[in-house]
Amino acid sequence: STFFKSAGNYMKATHHATIDEKMAVVVQEIVGTRFDTRFYPHISGVLRSYNFYPTGNARPDEGIVELALGLGRTIVDEGISWAFSPAWPEANPPFKSTGDLLKNTQTGFWAVNMGAPPVYDPILETEYLSRCGIEDAEYDGTLRHIASTYISQDDRIEMGIEAYGARIVDFSPILKAGVIPLSELLRTVLKLCEDSLGTMVEIEFAMTLEREYCSPAQFGFLQVRPMVVSDAKVEVPEEELSSGRALLASKTVLGNGSLDNIADIVYVRPESFDTGVTEAIAKELEGFNRSLTDGRIPYVLVGFGRWGTTDPSGGIPVDFGQISGAKVIVEASLPEMNFSLSQGSHFFHNVTSFRIFYFSVQHDGEFLIDWKWLDAQPAAGETAHVRHVRLPRPLDIRVDGRSGRGVIFHE
């Protein structure tokens, strides 16, 4: 509803009045198959024309695909997926070790609840959905063509699920063995949509697979929308990332351009951060955002884990309206919270649409956040977990979208 608080915050960020907003209802057939009390697709996916964080041989203009088992909520709300370039489907995401791969693989999925109806709750978005485990998918027979198995005694990964071991949802039978030509289809669909809209796009889709042989498969085209990417040219030489004036720097930054009008920083204090209090942190951030947006004051936001996740243990579960005034968002990792950045979420789409700079900073990376300098600045506001500082002079913020490099300088 446009009268919910989150929708109101979003309207404020876009400078529209709630009274002017109109709503429509779209009835769309769900792509999927019924398995007793569960109904879900074998594969949900998000396909984008531009890859903000290419790895290996992939180029930014070759795009990015994110796949998950079950309903697409896993990708667009939780940020969990298997990501690859459609031009290089056999390349694995850049996990540092098998342990990291096991830690980051999908362990649950969403399905439509076909069993007894729950207690009526008009506020709960997942009222008619079920959160299921990977073992449920294996029982349903939906892992056969999309998973691999970790063989612990040999510390290796074997395609398929015939062997005993932990399951990894990596879609190897499709992407590496080619049981269906998915990558070729996605490249074709992407070009057709780009030609039709005349711009880069973001596409959502879902698929069902034949149980025994995978083919024939059903490809459900769900929606397409334009993708906003700035073409401004900003130079950020690599040597500037190590400057003593750098508050933070990264080689994995979303966006393109420069900002010299931001003197406010809102950050989650690392010494008080804990995954058990992320929902409380989200509420504290909302308070700072409200006061800053009321004064039309842009700010830099720094926190840990995935922003916008629905899993409180994986990051800070804010909706976009709760941090809508941030013009630069920094996502930092911790030793116990190391992740790959999601490019397929609705939250991420808002970030690109509003042309927000998005920094990813690893705790063990080459460039670290200067927490000592931040803590030395006088506080303009402070709560149990969040601190707000206002600097005497604006920050110098630069992002080179071609190289993915970005830096924030203080005086």
Give a verbal description of the structure.
This protein has helices at 5-13, 73-76, 98-104, 134-140, 172-175, 182-197, 278-294, 346-353, 371-376; strands at 33-35, 38-40, 43-48, 64-68, 82-84, 108-113, 129-133, 148-151, 156-159, 166-168, 201-210, 214-226, 246-250, 253-254, 257-259, 264-268, 299-304, 306-307, 315-316, 326-332, 357-361, 379-382, 386-390, 396-400, 405-409. The strands form six sheets. Strands 14-21-20-17-16-23-22 form a seven-stranded mixed sheet, covered by helices on one side. The protein is globular. It contains nine helices and 25 strands. By secondary structure, it is α+β, with helices and mostly antiparallel strands.
Low-confidence stretches: none
User: What is the average per-residue confidence, as pLDDT, rounded to a whole number?
Assistant: 89
* Cα-atom radius of gyration: 22 Å
Strand ordering within the main sheet: 14-21-20-17-16-23-22
Oligomeric organization of the protein chains: single chain
Strand portion: 25-35%
The number of distinct β-strands equals 25
Alpha-beta content class:
alpha+beta
The N- and C-terminal alpha carbons lie at a distance of 44 Å
